[in-house]
């Protein structure tokens, strides 16, 4: 009877050992338990930051403006406003079927201000309706033009003579000139005849501003 009891005890102990081994194998496999989840910081990419930009290094970041941004800020603070300027159209210089005129902006204020880039321009009729499309900006290297009180800057306005190009023409009542980065134009009476407004060779071109009143 004692031998039978010892035999039963041995069988039970062996079974327990076998069950423990099986349990140990089950938890060590890649599919038996739930896989670990990535942390929020690991899942975040540069695409999650605003505009897709990589997060900046807080320790190395500064609030200083870059040279480009600083230059833009300086120009914005010092630029000539429409109310500080007068506009005029200089003498036409015709040649080889081309008409060339300087569009002149003059500082009529008591402070020094700056102009940079191309002015805006548009031909209008007596009712204020625009004739033709806006002039195209010719390629050029813009530079800041500093205008002391009474000083001027000019941009070249050019187009093919309608009588030569065959473009449809109209005679404007005025030319609207808008200083760079401004919204309000200056109105200049137009006295130089017909301009091309549609059809072939109807484009009008405008250069960047330079110091002075023209060539």
TrEMBL record:
UniProt KW keywords: Signal
Signal peptide (from-to): 1-23
InterPro entries linked: DUF4232
UniProt domain DUF4232: residue ranges: 80-196
Chain positions covered by the region annotation Disordered: 27-79
PROSITE patterns cross-referenced by the UniProt entry: PROKAR_LIPOPROTEIN (PS51257)
Protein name as annotated: DUF4232 domain-containing protein
Species per Swiss-Prot/TrEMBL record: Streptomyces heliomycini
């Amino acid at each position: 009877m004692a031998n039978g009891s010892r035999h039963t005890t041995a069988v039970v102990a062996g079974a327990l050992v076998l069950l423990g081994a099986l349990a140990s194998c089950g938890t060590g496999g890649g599919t038996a338990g739930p896989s670990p989840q990535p942390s929020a910081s690991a899942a975040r990419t540069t695409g999650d930051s605003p505009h897709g930009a990589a997060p900046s290094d807080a320790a190395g970041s500064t609030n200083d403006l870059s040279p480009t941004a600083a230059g833009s800020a300086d120009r914005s603070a010092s630029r000539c406003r429409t109310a500080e300027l007068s506009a005029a159209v200089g003498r036409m210089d015709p040649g080889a079927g081309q008409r060339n005129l300087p569009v002149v902006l003059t500082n009529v204020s008591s402070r020094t201000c700056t102009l940079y880039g191309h002015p805006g321009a548009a031909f209008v009729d007596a009712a204020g309706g625009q004739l033709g499309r806006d002039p195209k900006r010719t390629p050029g290297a813009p530079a800041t033009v500093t205008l002391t009180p009474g000083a001027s800057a000019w941009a070249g306005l050019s187009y093919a003579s309608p009588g030569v190009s065959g473009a449809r023409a109209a005679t404007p009542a005025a030319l609207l000139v808008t200083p760079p980065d401004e919204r309000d134009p200056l109105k200049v009476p137009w006295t130089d005849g017909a301009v091309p407004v549609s059809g072939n060779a109807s484009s009008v071109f405008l250069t960047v501003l330079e110091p002075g009143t023209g060539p």
